[in-house]
Amino acid sequence: MVPFKKLTKNARTCIVVEPLWALFGPLVTYFMPLYQQKLGLNEVQMGVVNSVGIAAGFLFFSLATPITNRLGRRKTSIVFDLIAWGVSMLLWAFSRSYIWFLVAAITNAAVRVVNVSWNLMLSEDATNEQRPTIYAWIYLAGAFGGITTFCGGMLIDRFGVVSSMRVIFLVGAAVMITMFILRYLGTEETKIGRILMEKSKDEKFATAVAKQIPQVIDALKDPFFLRMAGIFIIANAVLSIDFFRVLYLSEEKIFSPFMTALIPALGSIASTLLFVFVLPREEGRENHSHLAYSFLLCMVFQLAFVFIPKGSILGAVLTVPWLQAAYFLMQTFRDSVFMNVTDPDKRGERFSLVQALMLLVSIPMGWFAGYLYTLSPHFPFVFAAILYGIAFLLARSLGKYEKPQTNKVVA
Q1: Measuring CA to CA, which residue among 287, 298, 285 is closest to residue 239?
Q2: Core-most of 44, 57, 252, 270, by most CB within 10 Å?
């Protein structure tokens, strides 16, 4: 792995402030189903809220590249993060009904623009050798959200779901807004970003949006892009399914609130062990192979999770944390492979496109996951295991595309 001090300024800043987001991002996502349930939403309504968020995210992704090129990576990131998290956290804090969650799903979907701008700001000036290290640090910071999820579970157990979550949303909004400001002050526009800002400043926004059409056609003819799109789609679909994990643990596996909250914390520890003892040993090896085997691990642990006996603490400890850690590995190698193989001049457009396609296919997944859960609580997680198997096959086919890339810039 590349030493931290040798990473780019943008990468170091983003890594340092990322824990401030991780304090609350994973926490609110993990306990959101319980919060929604307490406020009267059923499983199908929860799925619809997720699907509305995905649909809105697709629209945001279709505009992400023109917005990012015009405003720059830094400015786009802070503006749309304030909408996606600052506004949404406040809406969640004061939610009273189904409609509140639908509106918050739309504002939170603005994070899809940030997914493009922030990823480019984070990695665009980095080398191929630096990117696996950068993404590993970022996803490790996110994994530490499991610790705060545990603390949040204890708070919920003491004061109740609704009261605790309202406080968490309010405090989280303040912390996240502070984090966005610190990140903005500590980063700089990327080299490619400055060039594209200059090129797009006099171009009409509608023209910039329309120019994406031939780029989309070109990307859809690229077999590497299509395989990576399938991998991103599967990874996102699994997140829609995992939304119901906390309900599954409490209702089907009969775990206490303490155990339900402890599992994400154990996942953080497992991810840290992989970061310290596994990733450094894999430096210089083919990322696509690691990506494939991380999907295979996800599939194995996902199936093991379904078959653990009710109330089996040992079964939960041996499966769920390692499933989370395997997903951490998958994210690290997935993003590294995509950024390293994709032509530098096309990274922004193609990353935005792959995310948009991911959301387009995933629009019905929130509803479908909720529907599967109503048929049988086991069905969504068995389906996730099947998806992991398909992703393993896709990742195995990427070897012929993984080759060194230069960080060229076309003016």
Answers
A1: 298
A2: 57
Rg of the chain over CA atoms, in angstroms? 20
Angstrom distance (rounded) from CA 8 to CA 16: 12
Kindly report, residue by residue over 18-73, the tens digit of the pLDDT: 999 989 998 898 899 999 999 999 988 998 998 899 889 888 988 898 999 999 99
406: in domain: no
**Contact between residue 260 and residue 246 where contact means Cβ atoms under 8 Å apart:** yes
pLDDT band at residue 202, thresholds of 50, 70 and 90?
A: confident
Nearest to 4 by CA among 331, 275, 324: 275
- DSSP letter assigned to residue 76: H
Residue 283 lies in a domain: yes
The answer to whether 328 and 274 have CB atoms below 8 angstroms apart is: yes
268: left (phi over 0), alpha (psi -120 to 50) or beta: alpha
Residue 397 tokens read as: 């086919």
CATH number of the domain bearing residue 126? 1.20.1250.20
**Residue 364 has what DSSP assignment?**
T
- Residue 309 DSSP code: P
Structure token digits, residue 216: 């989309």
Is residue 73 within 8 Å of residue 220, measured between CB atoms?
no
Give the Cα separation of 242 and 263 in Å (integer). Answer: 13
In angstroms, what CA-CA distances link 271 with 37, 322, 324? 30, 8, 7
pLDDT band, residue 410 (cuts 50/70/90): very low
Residue 278 tokens, joined? 């596994």
Count: domains in the chain: 1
Distances from the Cα of 115 to the Cαs of 61, 351, 384, in angstroms? 9, 9, 23
- Residue 407 within any structural domain of the chain: no
Domain-embedded: residue 409: no
Domain with 16 in it: 4-400
